[in-house]
């Protein structure tokens, strides 16, 4: 049998796909692994059974393994030769790069973001798959589900940050281990528990979508008062480097409107305390028609990125809650997320026509 030493960011599903075996085959060959969702920590040596396939080929818009920071870096390298600009807009608590992509040459800047919460990695995969699909359609000048991407991208410039919270996503996917620089801090926040499916915060236990100076004091008063797996607003607004990176990027680019992708619920939040412009209602109705997702004017919370953007700019902002179920959504949820959101994301490139 082959031997594989687990690397940072790997999961059983990722390793199985790499060697063309099933995750259950790895369980059979490594008796210390309890089940297919078990964490495998960096430095662990796994026995790899003989492969039946050289690799498992994913079908169109199928997800065979989790998407995280390692996958983002691989995609980033693949995109270097294509028609997309890339920049590093900041770094996470642990020093991971927060990467922004830019496609299009139009005068209207639009911003899509995802991977805000640690157990919502599907949004990062969706946005990167969407970006690659846009590139292919622009190069071929072929229509994409009835949309002329080539013409759309002459009118707008799409800015895209797929993974706002890389440290948190890695924690949910790989767990915690003694060599991890936040080992003791994370275990203290998690009260000693070593499973992290419920974790949505960054690595310091701050919820990046409760960090924004729009009703922050109210949200902070009603949320946990210390670092927590979810909903802790932080010691102050914009205390976390990931939030600061998005704040500065938003300020620098004067976006016409923004779409922040989260999971789950199949809903679209579009208002904040009446600060949103009148056109937001017509815009969300178009997004709803293209996705079957339910428009909801106001979420029962404050301090979100969309809330701040609307209050700060008086421009349209939307939170898209993709998928349905319990986070982290299973691998097979990606098909539904793609089918219900590809037209929404394309329609998002046309909403400026209503302004």
TrEMBL record:
One biological process term in Gene Ontology: proteolysis
A GO CC annotation given for this chain: extracellular space
GO MF annotation: an example: zinc ion binding
PROSITE patterns recorded: LYSM, PEPTIDASE_M14
Residues of the LysM domain: 2-48
Record's keyword terms, sorted: Hydrolase, Metalloprotease, Protease, Zinc
Cofactor(s) recorded in Swiss-Prot or TrEMBL: Zn(2+)
Domain Peptidase M14 positions: 59-349
Matching Pfam families: LysM, Peptidase_M14
CDD domains registered for this protein in UniProt: LysM (cd00118), M14_Endopeptidase_I (cd06229)
Active site (UniProt): 321
SUPFAM superfamilies assigned: LysM domain (SSF54106), Zn-dependent exopeptidases (SSF53187)
Keyword check for Acyltransferase: no
PANTHER family: PROTEASE FAMILY M14 CARBOXYPEPTIDASE A,B (PTHR11705), SLL0236 PROTEIN (PTHR11705:SF143)
Family indicated by similarity: Belongs to the peptidase M14 family.
Record protein name field: Peptidase M14
